[in-house]
Amino acid sequence: MTAVGEGPALQPEPAPERRRGGALVVAGALIAVLAGTALFLSGWTLGRQAAQQPGTPVSEQALWQPFWDTYTAITERYAGGPVDRQAVVQGAIKGMIAALNDPFSMYLTPEEFKASLQGISGQFSGIGTTVGTVDASGANASCAPLSATCRLAVESTIPGSPAEEAGLQPGDVITAINGATVSGLTTDQATQKIRGPKDTTVTLSIARDSVRPFSVSIVRADILQPEVSTRTLADGAVGYIKLASFSDQASVDFAAAVASDVRAGEKALVIDLRGDPGGFVTDARAIASQFLASGTVFWERDAAGDLTEVTAEPGGAATDPSIKVVVLVDGGTASASEIVSAALHDRGRATLVGTKTYGKGTVQQWTQLGGDNGGFRLTIARWLTPDKVWVNGVGITPDIVVSAAASKPGQDPVLDRALATLGFGGSGQ
């Protein structure tokens, strides 16, 4: 199955279309684990299995000769025991992709490939947390493998999940899983160890600021992540919509929520993208189009350097500029979430409030290999903001910087500031 990923092998497509040339395009950001299921939201595409090209191209025979010499030596002369040829081939594929030194491109075993796709539906078995990587200071970082300077940290927990009930908090660093250190693992490998069947237990060793390191045992469960949640603020004057991730269903539900708020006469909207690791690129376009009647949503630069403009779809419910929009962002806002944030910001359609976003500006393609060899995820494009800025590794600095780090339970200074920006005080229900 050829994958394109949270983001496309992106070409603009007609509004009703979701597929292109047999490939499903997705966009995402941050490497995330939802309830222990790897959800690679930095842009990705799913599609059919790629056609195989037999043999080595004549023009590259000299380049590949050392590879074939090594493979032949292993299969014909290795005396240490039986040779698992499939394992050797899989190891070669893994090594080729690892040589790119790209934390978002990697080989996946058949089990890993299958498990990774489960998170796209928002339903999976695990503990219910989104994780990412941070550096030694605790700042978000795109890195691999895990080490003292590339640490696995909790980004958010799903309400009502085992992770939330166990007391995990954003910023918690996971140092070991079931007693084994995570050092040397990729984020994918670590998340494979965290996830697991319902009613099984995983023990995490946690490092938390100002607290002695501790361990917590969590019983896994079937998780259904609510992607869109809504409420009304400021005595019915402001509509609030929180988007947890990007998928086809999420974009449909989001559009319905925006339309409902507009029909109710609400002239101010707060869109909460905090902790949202991203999702399908096509759905980032659809969600941004709820506020943009036309024009650029983002640009995509492919491997050949060609730049493609992705424009807004017609028919958005809140394109009227009299409807004020504030978008809440933080370090967990990544990929497709950053596409939307940057689009509304650069186009002058929304004010961004919160802290700097993650900084994931690439798109991955997922390709399933034949012969039960799993598959791989490969960076196949960069996305740029409408102003043609590449946010990768940099993130987006909001118009109004407000941190919720020192807030007490029940307080939300970021939302309070958003309401004040819209001309309302407090975060009342």
Q: Tell me the total number of β-strands.
A: 27
Q: In angstroms, what is the radius of gyration? A: 22 Å
CATH topology of the domain at 123-224: Pdz3 Domain
CATH architecture term of the domain at 123-224: Roll
Overall 3D form? globular
How many separate helices? 9
Helical/strand content category: alpha+beta
Write down the CATH class of the domain at 123-224. Answer: Mainly Beta
- The CATH superfamily title of the domain at 123-224: PDZ domain
Query: Beta-strand percentage?
Result: 25-35%
Residues in helix, %: 10-25%
SSE blueprint:
Elements: E1 4-5, E2 19-20, E3 23-24, E4 27-28, E5 31-34, E6 37-40, E7 44-47, H1 61-77, H2 85-98, E8 106-108, H3 110-118, E9 123-126, E10 129-134, E11 151-157, H4 162-165, E12 173-177, E13 180-181, H5 187-194, E14 201-208, E15 211-219, E16 221-224, E17 228-233, E18 238-243, H6 248-263, E19 268-272, E20 278-279, H7 281-288, E21 296-302, E22 307-311, E23 324-329, H8 336-346, E24 351-354, E25 362-368, E26 375-384, E27 400-401, H9 413-421
Parallel strand pairs: 18-19, 19-23, 23-24, 24-27
Antiparallel strand pairs: 1-7, 2-3, 3-7, 4-20, 5-6, 8-26, 9-16, 10-11, 11-12, 12-13, 12-14, 14-15, 17-18, 21-22, 21-26, 25-26
Helix pairs in contact: 6-7, 7-8
